[in-house]
Fold these 4 entries.
Entry 1:
Amino acid sequence: MLHHHPVHKTNNSVFHKALNFVIAIVATASPLITLPQLFDIYTKKTASGVSSITWLMYIFTAAIWFYYGIIHKEKAIIINGILGVILASLIFFGTIMYG
């Protein structure tokens, strides 16, 4: 369940419950979209065409989202941030090693 920030009105409608459920799934699963890129870099041992700067910026933005999630006690955002930092870091280091 997502944390209800004091400025947000508590709404227990079916729509809001469903939306919170979908957001929890999307926030957790969306960083996993990077797995094919990660798999390609490390199995093919090449990062040709993959920008290390882009992935460094992904690390930076994921870290900000992680921090935001901690401050606001939003579990879905925290999980998204952690996964984002880890996966983007692995891709970034792959671009350094194999780029």
Note: Residues 75-98 form the longest helix (24 residues).
Entry 2:
Amino acid sequence: MTQCFFCSQNLREIDYKEVELLKRFISSQGKIIDPRHTGVCAKHQRRLAQAIKRARFLALLPFVKR
């Protein structure tokens, strides 16, 4: 099993304003990618999902890509 990206980078906070980082965890259709494919631990997956949802609400990320 691979180590979590956020644990290995020693990142404490996942900021919703870091759009380029969040785009790595969104599929081509705009969905949040499953943690089994990304290798993110459960704690960071919850924080990542919250950050993506906040960025979508503030129009920093699209809800759906066409």
Note: The longest helix spans residues 42-57.
Entry 3:
Amino acid sequence: MILAHRIALDPTVEQSIALSKACGVARFAWNWALDAWNKAYESGEKPTANGLKLAWNKVKHSLFPWVGESPKDANQQPFTNL
């Protein structure tokens, strides 16, 4: 006998918007980090996740102020995953 639990998310409209924003920020941060990684690697440097994260933290509020609307983990975890 196989038992399983099926859990479905049923977010409200506001929660759905917040989830979409967090996913968008995570995707944007991933793409930004991947581009920065590739540029650094092609120029002969050895990029690190912490170095990219530091560079991201310096520019994210001035260049991308909308990032602050999402939770911190949404824009920090992509660097670890990369």
Note: The chain has a mean pLDDT of 90.
Entry 4:
Amino acid sequence: FCCTNNRPKGHPRSSCAERGSIELRDYMKARVIEMGLSGIRINAAGCLNRCELGPTVVVYPDGIWYHMETRKDVDEILELHLRGGTTVQRLLLKADA
């Protein structure tokens, strides 16, 4: 699930969409197809309430939360986590964040 929530410009909490989440979600969807990752669905989500840490993505059923900023981050999540089953530590959102 990729947060695509969009708040008004200048909102104190900002929003994932303001930080590029829609473009990253679209890229992630295309890459899943290119990589041949079957059984993977990339969904848009409303606010995941981690606005200040966004863009955020949650991998289910694993319940792993990530912060992503670039296409490289997306590729790393897809390759290491979804294909390889390894948590991407550098992008991980901690439970207390």
Note: The radius of gyration is 13 Å.
